[in-house]
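We treat protein structure as text, and this decision shapes the records that our systems exchange. The tokens are whole numbers drawn from a learned vocabulary of local backbone shapes. Below, we set out a record of this kind in full and without editing:
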Amino acid sequence: MELPMDGYDLSNTLPASGVAESTPRPGGRQRPMAPWPYPNISPSQFESLTPDDRMMLEALTQTFIETALLRRGIKPRGRKIG
């Protein structure tokens, strides 16, 4: 499925809802699309990566962002465990 370059759906990355959270109602409003962060990489190119490639890309991106923040004197947020 080709996605528009201006956004992408994050619904499959959201954590499972817990007991205290209500489930979305059928026919409810669609979640807004998140902006696509890479103008030179299409969503279909990203989708063609293997799960291992995606994990590597995420790790590289996180390392780059943390390094850039540290250079600017900003302490990065804690990493997720899991």
In short: The mean pLDDT is 75. Residues 51-71 form the longest helix (21 residues). The CA atoms of residues 22 and 28 lie 13 Å apart. The two ends are 29 Å apart (CA to CA).
